[in-house]
Design a protein that fits this description.
Blueprint (H helix, E strand, L loop, with lengths): L3 E10 L2 E11 L4 E5 L6 H9 L6 E6 L2 E2 L5 H7 L1 E4 L11 H7 L7 H14 L1 H5 L10 H13 L5 E5 L7 H16 L3 E5 L3 H7 L2 E6 L2 E7 H6 L1 H7 L3
Parallel strand pairs: 3-8, 3-9, 6-7, 7-8
Antiparallel strand pairs: 1-2, 1-4, 4-5, 9-10
Helix pairs in contact: 3-6
């Protein structure tokens, strides 16, 4: 049984159907990436998993249990956390305050302190900036904070939406290396990323979405070598 399964998921925004019955699965311990152009349905897929968007048909199963009838904050308690597109940190709060907000579902204070130490190990710059207001951080630092905040929930599955968007190349390399370390620690990752080449080098498998449909699913290595993927997403 897969850790995460989407079966026949359809999502409508008013009269417009954004997802047309997609099927996706993620095994425990994997890094899986969703590729596609803007408007393909990638972010909608993550929001559906998180419970922030409700499908009009289909099923979302996490560890064999349906997520469709529980509110979004309980999805976090089930073991899924999301780092959203655009980072969305709380700019008038400090780095530490932002991180502690991510632990709202964790009642074990000792475990929360342990997780905070781990995040500071993953992102030493956040430790250096821990008392700084989040709104004064650089874009790369805010992305570190957004990922760290999601990890404070101690998820089994981490959803990452465009973690490299708008970042300088140095930060992009750092973020992807950290995602690899997060995976090595035992957290399963579902990644939405415009930088298709970097995502496929990181992931074990990938799905290609086009206008709300899964049009291709294969190992990352096969997708990297596929001529149609190379032409559409890798620059030829």
């Amino acid at each position: 049984m897969a850790l995460l399964e989407l079966k026949g998921i359809r999502v409508r925004y008013g009269n417009v159907e954004a997802l047309h019955g997609i099927d996706i699965h993620v095994e425990e311990g994997e890094i899986v990436t969703l590729l596609g152009a803007n408007g393909a349905g990638k972010s909608t897929t993550l929001l559906t998993i998180s419970g922030l968007v409700r499908p009009c048909a289909g099923e979302v199963l996490f560890d064999g249990k349906s997520l469709l009838r529980i509110p979004a904050h309980d999805v976090v308690r089930q073991g899924i956390a999301q780092s959203p597109e655009g980072r969305r940190v709380f700019g008038t709060m400090t780095v530490v305050e932002n991180l502690r907000l991510g632990a709202f579902s964790v009642r074990d204070k000792a475990k929360t302190a342990e997780t905070l130490d781990w995040i500071f190990d993953l992102f030493p710059r956040l430790f250096e900036r821990r008392e700084q207001l989040a709104g004064t951080l650089s874009g790369g630092e805010q992305q570190m904070l957004a990922i760290g905040r999601a990890l404070m929930a101690q998820p089994r599955l981490l959803l990452l939406d465009e973690p490299s968007l708008g970042l300088a190349p140095l930060f992009v390399r750092s973020i992807f290396e950290t995602v690899r370390n997060i995976s090595a620690s035992g957290v399963t990752v579902l990644l939405v990323e415009q930088n298709a080449r970097a995502a496929l080098k990181l992931a074990s498998r990938g799905y290609v979405l086009e206008v709300g449909n899964v049009v291709m699913h294969d190992t990352a290595a096969n997708l990297l070598a596929d001529p149609s993927v190379r032409e559409a997403y890798l620059g030829g």
